[in-house]
Input
Amino acid sequence: MGEYVLEMNNITKVFPGVKALDNVSLKVRPGSVHALMGENGAGKSTLMKCLFGIYQEDGGDIILDGKKENITTSKQALDLGVSMIHQELHPIRFRPVMENIWLGRFPMRGIAVDRKTMIRKTKELFKEIDLDINPEVLAGNLSASNLQLVEIAKAVSYNSKIIIMDEPTSSLTDNETDHLFKIIRQLQGKGCAIIYISHKMEEILKIADEVTIMRDGQYVGTWPSGELTTDLIINRMVGRDMTNRFPEKDYIPGTEVVLKAEDLCSPLPKSFQHVSFELHRGEILGIGGLVGAQRTELVEALFGLRVIVSGEVEKDGERFKVKSVQDAKKHGLALLTEERRASGVFPILSVLDNTVIASQKTYANHGVLRQSKRLKAAKEANLQLNVKTPTLETLIQDLSGGNQQKVLIARWLLTHPDILILDEPTRGIDVGAKYEIYTIMLDLIKQGKSIIMISSEMPELLGMSDRVMVMCEGKVSGVLNRAEADQIEVMRLATRFVK
Amino acid sequence: MQGEKVIPRQKFAIVYIAAGAVSLVAGILLKIAFYKKTLYDLPWWAIGIGLILIGYGLFQIISAERIGKDVVFSQRTAKSFLTNNAIILALLLLIVVIMFIEPRFMQNKVLLDIMTQSSTRLIIALGICFTLLIAGTDLSAGRMVGLAAVISTSMLQKADYGNRFFPNLPQISVVFPILAAIFACLLFGVLNGYLVARFDMHPFIATLATQVMIYGACSLYFDLPPNRSQPIGGVRDDFTILGQKMLFKSPGFDGFSVLIPIALVICLIIWFVLNKTVFGKNVYAIGGNREAAVVSGVNVFATIMFIFILASGLYGIGGVLEAARTAGATNNYGVGYELDAIAACVVGGVSLNGGVGKIRGIVTGVLIFTVIQYGLQFVGVSPMWQQIMKGVIIAVAVALDLSKYRRK
Output
């Protein structure tokens, strides 16, 4: 065995119109944790998909244990001792956990699946990595974090030499992350190498032995993690200095109330209850809280997507009822949803169609569209927000996450809203695009618009909000001014009603 | 990329014009200098193809600024051209093969026959494509065709016909029975739309339920005394011309069926609706991502309602025309048409996952099935083999179509 258990040399991968990987190399030592870092769209996932046989590289070599391999299927990768925890989980929801784990290699007795052995093997596996989950419970009934842990167990069960973990902690709490790290140390002890993809710097510096950084599909370099700091990593990832993560706020928020909610209640007892707040003209009102604090549910109700049973909403001093999204739009509200893929983009439609969908009627005469008007509106809006797209006819699924998000903001700006509700506006997009979105937000404020922003990222919440409203278990647990808001205070309020 | 060659669009267009000119000249030469009886109408076809190619080339030059892109030749673009146009190429290949086996196929009459037979099918397929575009389906199409046929013919029988459905009905204008037939279909379209839009029912189940109801209702109507489930015949001539009239009939030319321009006009209208109206864009949006459409403020309820109503209207028109063409109807009329229409759409590139599909593809899909049926009959292939061919075409076409979207 050589120095490396895996060598990926000069890997190149071309998609129609994009060079996703350009001469990228990755060398992993046995028994080490190797972090792979880069902005979104840097090509990390693509590189791993080449290794795992989901994509076929167009150039370069993959050498496993000193032997050159041509990996064409995931099954082959697994047989060669490479397993992968995917960034997005696709559990079979209506089947038990254990079937999800042993799918494709069920223990058999004759021609029948040996259920007892499967239960036993699953229990052994869970015991090995200290998981307390019933193997027979349906996968769909598990929480997101437990699903993630099951996925990790599944990767472990292959007894692989190399485990790829693509953002394994994105849905884990701190405690669970520590648990994961324990599992990783255990695997390392057995000589298993881990390729670890994450955006979380603290995690990387804590767990990784070596760090490889990629940028725009190219290889930047590999360093022992002891030589790196958060700033150094960011620098090398973006290729420029990022001393200021937030643009400077050079405006004074207004005091005039544009939106006033009083005692809003959801029909579901566990959802938002008795929520009251005020939004001022020209301010960013941040909504903080833990996952499950019902923040998304609240703004969706304001936007007519959910039912409100009691309470009043006033806009510009006038009471109004939102029965549907059409109503909300008419009253100048816009909502950028949390789940870009599920309820934001139309992946198979063009950037043009995606941009104008919410304001379509304004380009039509008796239902007949004027193409020139649509083009003009989309062109101007996308130019204003600096969307990078080859053409307006490009399918939106071919753009990066940050550009997709900008198209979605453009979509709502075309409806000329007074109030923009942004639900996790920078989730899953890279550092550079985040900064651009923050700049856009400030521009909008200066134009006299008001913003409600839900954010689970503490620095973002504190860095961008003029006031922070914190929610806990469906109730408002406090409102903080910019001056009083800090990490500790927000966390205290966010856990105020937790039993 | 290796073996890549970039050609300006103008030059690319000239290739088309040159090919068109060759075809045109060859056609004229064949007609004037070397004409033989065994060539039938081949010269005319060559001239026609030549004109189309030249027209397409000129269009490319004129719109060069708008498209503005150079044409890239490489293995990749060649492959994508082949997969994108596989169906059209298969259709052409099929025609050429049939022409070699049976030169009598090379007649304008044959071409027009194929188009005539495709007309009503196209109208029904255009209706069903809306329901497919929102990742749904419509199983009630065939029964609606039957319903429209029975209702329209029942009120349009000759005064001297022995077995009249309504013995005392005066000779009313053709317009009213036609409107009544289409209206009946629209009612069931409303029911389809309401079930799907209001209760979020899967269109498969909603339209299955409606389909059964329509058949029951149609059979009850058909069984009314004095008719008692007798096939309806003796249909008035002023109605049958709707499906049988030959236009531009002259000595030496049989004319072409009125169904062709009717289908063409409907096709243009549907193209316009789908591509140029807010409604059409909303259909694609709902098919592309229903959640995102809701959040964007698209009126999903109204759009789905209208989809099913529009579709049922088209089935109604299709049913009336079928009845006029065949001058009769029974309650079993139109059974299975929905599956033919779905097959034609899918072969033409409409995705069952919703959001993808073009009118051009649907027209090709309908034509290919008619060519198979007509052409194979022409060369004397057993109808049973035709069924197998049809099945193979569906499977191969969809497999090819899906490979377009798969990345590897």
Summary: Chain B has a mean pLDDT of 89. The CA atoms of residues 101 and 226 of chain B lie 51 Å apart.
